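Re: [ENG-882] Designed sequences occasionally contain unexpected residues at chain ends

Forwarding the minimal case from QA. C-alpha cells:
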C-alpha cells in the first residue's frame, strides 16, 4: 500500500518505503513505485526525481508535461529544497559542515570521488543527535548526483549505517536497512504557492535508532 502524502491536479507525492525501486528495473517481475502508483492514479505520471531503492521517503511525480518541465527547472536551478535524515557510523564532533567533493561513476554503477574528472557535488549537514559510535544527521544536498549523500559520507570515513555498497559489507549487513530517509521536500506549485511535504520517519528506521539509544544507555 502506497502512502500518499500530497496530491492535487498537478502533482502527487508519496512516502516510498525502503527496498522498492522508484522506477522499473531491468528484469521482469520486480515491483517498482512508478508502476504501482500508475495503477491507481488515472493520469500519466512523469518522473521528476528518484530515490535510491534502499532509501525511503518523500518522492514527487508530475501529472502533466508543463508541471514536469517546471519542476525539472526548479531542480536544475536548485530551487527545490530537500532534507534527509541519516545515521552514520562514528562520532561526529562537528556541529555541521559542508562536503564539497566531485563525483563520477566508476564500474558496476558505483560512484566515487574524482577531483579531476568528477562533477561538482555539494552536501551540507548538521548534527541532530550523537551516540557513542554513531551520529544522526540532517542532510541538505545542494546538488543531486547519484548516490551523492552516501558517497560523500563514506569519503569522510563516516559511511551511512546499513549501506552495503559503500562501507564494510560484513559490518553493514548487521543492519536491516540503509539508514537514509528523505524527510522533507519543498517546491513551488504552478500557482506560485510553495508546497512543503514531509514524510514521517518509518518504523524500520525508528527501530534501529531505538536499539542504538538503548545500547548507548546500557
Amino acid at each position: 500500500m502506497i502512502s500518499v502524502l500530497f496530491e492535487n491536479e498537478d502533482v502527487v507525492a508519496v512516502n516510498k518505503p525502503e527496498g522498492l525501486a522508484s522506477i522499473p528495473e531491468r528484469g521482469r517481475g520486480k515491483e517498482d513505485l512508478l508502476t504501482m502508483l500508475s495503477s491507481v492514479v488515472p493520469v500519466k505520471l512523469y518522473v521528476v526525481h528518484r530515490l535510491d531503492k534502499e532509501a525511503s521517503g518523500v518522492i514527487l511525480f508530475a501529472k502533466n508535461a508543463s508541471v514536469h518541465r517546471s519542476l525539472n527547472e526548479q531542480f536544475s536551478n536548485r530551487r527545490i529544497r530537500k532534507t534527509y535524515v541519516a545515521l552514520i557510523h562514528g562520532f561526529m564532533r562537528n556541529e555541521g559542515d559542508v562536503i564539497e567533493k566531485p563525483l563520477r561513476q566508476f564500474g558496476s554503477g558505483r560512484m566515487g570521488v574524482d577531483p579531476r574528472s568528477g562533477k561538482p557535488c555539494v552536501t551540507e549537514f548538521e548534527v541532530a543527535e550523537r551516540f557513542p559510535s554513531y551520529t544522526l544527521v540532517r542532510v541538505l544536498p545542494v546538488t543531486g548526483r547519484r548516490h551523492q549523500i552516501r558517497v560523500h559520507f563514506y569519503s569522510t570515513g563516516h559511511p551511512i549505517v546499513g549501506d552495503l555498497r559503500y562501507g564494510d559489507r560484513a559490518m553493514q549487513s548487521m543492519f536491516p536497512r540503509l539508514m537514509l530517509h528523505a524527510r522533507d521536500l519543498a517546491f513551488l506549485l504552478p500557482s506560485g504557492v510553495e508546497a512543503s511535504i514531509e514524510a514521517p520517519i518509518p518504523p524500520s528506521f525508528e527501530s534501529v535508532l531505538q536499539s542504538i539509544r538503548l545500547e548507548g544507555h546500557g
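QA comment: On inspection the terminal residues look reasonable. The longest strand covers residues 81-89. Proposing we downgrade this to a documentation issue.
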